Amino acid sequence: MDKTINQKAWFLVLPVLLLVAFSAVIPLMTVVNYSVQDTFGNNQFFWAGLEWFDEMLHSDRMWNALGRQVMFSAIILAIEIPLGIFIALNMPKSGFWSSLCLVLMSLPLLIPWNVVGTIWQIFGRVDIGLLGHTLDALGIPYNYTQNTVAAWITIVVMDVWHWTSLVALLAFAGLKSIPDAYYQAAKIDQASRWAIFRYIELPKMAGVLMIAILLRFMDSFMIYTEPFVVTGGGPGNATTLLSIDLVKMALGQFDLGPAAAFSIMYYLVILLVSWVFFTVMTNLDKKGS
């Protein structure tokens, strides 16, 4: 029986394609255009070739910002992934308390990023903030505007508080998908709690954990609003991550050419790491099937 092929469905997709082209492709083309040209205003451009890319590759400023960014993302992943798994393992699996835990865990994810930064900016202030004033009263030196260690602790704890819930919810979903037969077999074999986690729960959570790692890496590597609101990149350049440095270069100094080249290399790094994670996830799915 011959089937009639109807292509009218493409008209439903066309508005989305146009929106994506307007919101992503056109700005990307503009950035590429700025990255290979120089301008002195009045809409006059001069060809610069790969000059800005070469300048950025030999810039200590960019490499220092990249080092801080990699360290921040590594710390975030090292804390949030194990903590999220631990919380998911200890959450009730069903009933009223399970629903209550899921609701409470979701609350931090609903708070806008700028509000999160404002909350922790006030929370950590020595004069009026609960955390800062309490630590100061206890004689513990804490001032995130002047002390580098305090600034780093503040933005790390802030991100952990905001995003660990995402990892916990994903891990909890992975645990819920495990059939009871696995646990019954482990009980018959008198497997220890560690053995159950190592050979049953962790392999079954591998897929969702890779998604959690991918999402948290991408978000932590592109983070801007929260640390900018809290520290502004300070003290000095201690918390000037890649995104903050890029905005300072583009809007603060109006160096559009170097900033455009910087942003393209920034984008390629994120794309490369995301592709690596995606490849690993695909291989895990193939092995699981």
Automatic annotation (TrEMBL):
InterPro entries: MetI-like, MetI-like_sf, Sugar_ABC_transporter. Its main location: membrane. The keyword Transmembrane applies. GO terms for biological process: transmembrane transport. GO terms for cellular component: plasma membrane. The chain crosses the membrane at residues 12-36, 70-89, 101-123, 149-175, 196-218, 264-284. It is a multi-pass membrane protein. Keywords: Membrane, Transmembrane, Transmembrane helix, Transport. It is found in: Cell membrane. Residues 66-277 form the ABC transmembrane type-1 domain. It comes from the Bacteria. Belongs to the binding-protein-dependent transport system permease family. PANTHER family: GLUCOSE IMPORT SYSTEM PERMEASE PROTEIN GLCT, TREHALOSE TRANSPORT SYSTEM PERMEASE PROTEIN SUGA. This is sn-glycerol-3-phosphate transport system permease protein UgpA. It comes from Jannaschia donghaensis. The gene is ugpA_2.
